From TrEMBL:
<dbReference type="Pfam" id="PF00171">
    <property type="entry name" value="Aldedh"/>
</dbReference>
<dbReference type="InterPro" id="IPR020593">
    <property type="entry name" value="G-glutamylP_reductase_CS"/>
</dbReference>
<keyword id="KW-0641">Proline biosynthesis</keyword>
<feature type="domain" description="Aldehyde dehydrogenase">
    <location>
        <begin position="315"/>
        <end position="404"/>
    </location>
</feature>
<dbReference type="InterPro" id="IPR000965">
    <property type="entry name" value="GPR_dom"/>
</dbReference>
<dbReference type="GO" id="GO:0004350">
    <property type="term" value="F:glutamate-5-semialdehyde dehydrogenase activity"/>
</dbReference>
<dbReference type="InterPro" id="IPR016161">
    <property type="entry name" value="Ald_DH/histidinol_DH"/>
</dbReference>
<dbReference type="InterPro" id="IPR012134">
    <property type="entry name" value="Glu-5-SA_DH"/>
</dbReference>
<dbReference type="GO" id="GO:0050661">
    <property type="term" value="F:NADP binding"/>
</dbReference>
<dbReference type="InterPro" id="IPR015590">
    <property type="entry name" value="Aldehyde_DH_dom"/>
</dbReference>
<dbReference type="InterPro" id="IPR016162">
    <property type="entry name" value="Ald_DH_N"/>
</dbReference>
<feature type="domain" description="Aldehyde dehydrogenase">
    <location>
        <begin position="9"/>
        <end position="278"/>
    </location>
</feature>
<comment type="similarity">
    <text>Belongs to the gamma-glutamyl phosphate reductase family.</text>
</comment>
<dbReference type="GO" id="GO:0005737">
    <property type="term" value="C:cytoplasm"/>
</dbReference>
<dbReference type="InterPro" id="IPR016163">
    <property type="entry name" value="Ald_DH_C"/>
</dbReference>
<keyword id="KW-0028">Amino-acid biosynthesis</keyword>
<comment type="pathway">
    <text>Amino-acid biosynthesis; L-proline biosynthesis; L-glutamate 5-semialdehyde from L-glutamate: step 2/2.</text>
</comment>
């Protein structure tokens, strides 16, 4: 079993030195990390092939293998995302506000790192480089525990990031890897309260729930995306079809993909056949309620579990609703607070949807697939927070900081 206590001690040491690094030095080190990733593309692909071979042997679906698969293009994208982070403002040391109180004290609120971040995640190797580089730029040491599906890919990526630090004469302790994928080690990490300042789980519903139930370290909940597209009675048909096809079929294995289509009953008879044709062409299977089933040729009857399922596959649940109120009520009852969208030309309906739907990201006339730190301009992301405390939505650099109060006096004492 990995010695997590030692990793924790190392991380504390790494965090102390990292928090003091000037922005230029952090950026130079990130560039070195990106270059090291690009130079070692063949070794990364070889490691990834080991993971893919095991995935196929274990019967993992093709859509889930897609989450795991690395290509030369994806590796270059991972490196480029690291470079993008160097172009973002460094939040560390920024003073959000400053004021003078009635005692003459000058009081400021300053951005500082969280400290040591633990991340438990599943089968996407790009999370390794995204999380490590964001944590590094925001002055945080990170302990990464990936899933067994991507073990070889994650391991070599962390080794290369550490190599870049070592080659530059810096401590590799800022980025560390848990090389034991057992549940026992994961549970120990969840309770590493003496060393971790926060734990971020990133993965499927079962992982998130397990961390919520077992962790004693403070957590930021991320991830699961039971996302909805609601087609209002005033929607443009062609626009709605394009948005739904993109949200469901462009990459169904990711958390910002749509899982349920809600459609107003006034337009269902002529809209559903059109969207069915477009989705079937993409290989999507439909699970529809009884009313929608009357207008579809290939769908099967949905049951109650479909409304709560994050398929992460070419499957879409379909339901007819009679009003915007019913759509909002259904979404707020079944969603995971991730990403929700309405397609409508009605300003009133769009504003009600934005105001009343409870989710981290709410769209009008756009695909849910845009919920992404890079797309939002944050560089990469460490996850999509679906909770309401500390951070919500795509988590970039600022969300990996906290604040401290700095107070300047000139001899004041409290009477």
């Amino acid at each position: 079993m990995t010695d997590l206590i030692q990793l924790g001690k190392n991380a504390k040491e790494g965090a102390r030195s990292l928090a003091l690094l000037p922005t230029k030095q952090k950026n130079d080190l990130l560039v070195a990390m990106a270059q090291t990733i690009k130079k070692n593309q063949i070794a990364i692909l070889d490691a990834n092939q080991k993971d893919l071979a095991q995935a196929e042997e274990n019967g993992i679906s093709e859509t889930m293998q897609d989450r795991l698969r690395l290509t030369p293009e994806r590796i270059h994208t991972m490196a480029d995302e690291i470079i993008k982070i160097t172009q973002l403002d460094d939040p560390i040391g920024k003073v959000d506000s400053m004021w003078q109180n009635e005692d003459g004290l000058l009081i400021g609120k300053k951005r500082v790192p969280l400290g040591v971040i633990g991340i438990i995640y599943e089968s996407r190797p790009n999370v390794t480089t995204d999380a490590a580089s964001l944590a590094f730029k925001s002055g945080n040491a990170v302990i990464l525990r990936g899933g067994k599906e991507a073990f070889f890919s994650n391991k070599i990526l962390v080794e290369l990031l550490q190599q870049a630090l070592t080659d530059a004469g810096e401590s590799p302790y800022a980025i560390q890897f848990v090389d034991d994928t057992s549940h026992e080690t994961a549970e120990q990490l969840m309770k590493l309260t003496d060393y971790l300042d926060v734990l971020i789980p990133r993965g499927g519903a079962s992982l998130i729930q397990r961390v919520k139930e077992q962790a004693t370290v403070p957590i930021i909940e991320t991830g699961t995306g039971n996302n909805h597209i609601y087609i209002d009675k005033d929607a443009q048909l062609a626009m709605a079809v394009d948005i739904i096809v993109n949200a469901k079929a462009s990459r169904p294995s990711v958390c910002n993909a749509a899982e349920t289509l809600l459609i107003h009953s006034e337009i269902a008879p002529f809209f559903l056949p059109a969207i069915e044709r477009a989705l079937v062409e993409q290989g999507v299977t439909l699970h529809a309620d009884a009313r929608a089933l009357d207008h579809l040729d290939t769908a099967t009857l949905a049951d109650e579990s479909d409304w709560d399922t994050e398929y992460l596959d070419y499957i879409l649940a379909v339901k007819i609703v009679d009003s915007l109120d019913e759509a909002i009520e259904h979404i707020n009852r079944h969603n995971t607070k991730h990403s929700e969208a309405i397609v409508t030309d009605s300003y009133t309906a769009s504003q009600r949807f934005l105001n009343e739907v409870d989710a981290a990201a709410v769209y009008v006339n756009a695909s849910t697939r845009f919920t992404d730190g890079s797309v939002f301009g944050f560089g990469a992301e460490i996850g999509i927070s679906t909770q309401k405390l500390h951070a919500r939505g795509p988590m970039g650099l600022n969300e990996l900081t906290t604040t401290k109060y700095i107070i300047y006096g000139n001899g004041q004492i409290r009477e």
